[in-house]
Amino acid sequence: MSDHHDDQHGHDDQHGHIKLEYHPGLPLSLGKLCLWLFLSTEIMFFAGLIGAYVVLRFGAPAGTWPTPHDVHLSEPIGAFNTFVLICSSLSVVLCLEAAKKNQAAAAKTWMLITFVLGSVFLGVKGYEYKEKFAHGIYPAKPHGLMYDRADVYYVSALKLRLEAVNREMTDEQKAQEAIEGFTREQWVNLMHSGAVQWTARHVTIDPSTLEARDLLEGLAYSVQHGHSSDYPVARAQAERERLSADLAGLKEEAGGIQQNEAQMRERLEQAQAANAEAEPEGDAPTAEEIQSELAALTMQSTEMQQRIKPVQDRVAFLDVLLRDDAHLMQHGIEHEMPWLRLPFVLPGGNMWASTYFLLTGFHAIHVIIGLIIFALVLPVTLGRNKAEYIENAGLYWHFVDLVWIFLFPILYLF
Prior knowledge:
The protein contains 14 helices and four strands.
């Protein structure tokens, strides 16, 4: 009986006292909770940036937003970078799994692979930036060479650039061939007089005329062609034919003036000889009168040469553009002579550059932060005690990857 009482008492001691355990309100560690709060702010930040880009991109009128080809974006390079970043997300997951199994060596290998893949992504992005800078595409002036439209400001920028090229070229560079039949110095001078000054003269007179608009568009097209249309080429051919006829007429008129000038010189010599011998007869013009007429003819001849020179340079410039089935005009001067680094017209180009560098720049900063997080843990042993750190770092890295998944199609494919 006593034994039965003791057993019952022991049983009550075992089951009568309840042991309580504390459970947090959320099934998350403090570190992971802070990370999710941080990522929620980042999601709102990038959602605002991407949303603004979408509104600007798809709200732009047709033909006023650059295509990926216009701004030297390579879809295969962008796709490769996307693949690299996706692989890095996979490797950080494998790193976490190895750490949970306390396989420190395998975890460190996967972490190193993640770090290398992230570095490759940044290296490719740096190469893409370098290509943009090489073609004069910058997020803002004064380094940028893009103009949204062909106008007097664009013509002025071309003029200043050609003058700068002439000043900066060494004697050796001036003698180098720019195009068949022209050295670099000759080509720069011809483009300055036959393209820029010719356009500036007509635009300054009245920029609203159809001729002025055609000249501006033709100049912009010849610097960097925007499409394969033959329409600008046809306009250039028509202009060359018209100016060739005008040039022939001007030369004929100048020849007549020069002939009159030569005859007047002979008369002056005869009058001067007659004055030396005796007084001139009756109404015969004096040497002073003949000399005055000769001076007027000389002034007319000089003015004719000043009228002929720009037309002659313009025709010579058009001849080069239209040579070999308009090869130079179809490919663009900027493409054939990259050493010139000429300003070019790209509708919407400055807005595109601002949004592109803003989006990819902020994303690149986040990638750099992720690489720093990985680098801090690479020297230590990646066992179970580091699993939570790796998990939080992986969550951040997945977010960076997800942002790029959105950026790649809107920047490279549309």
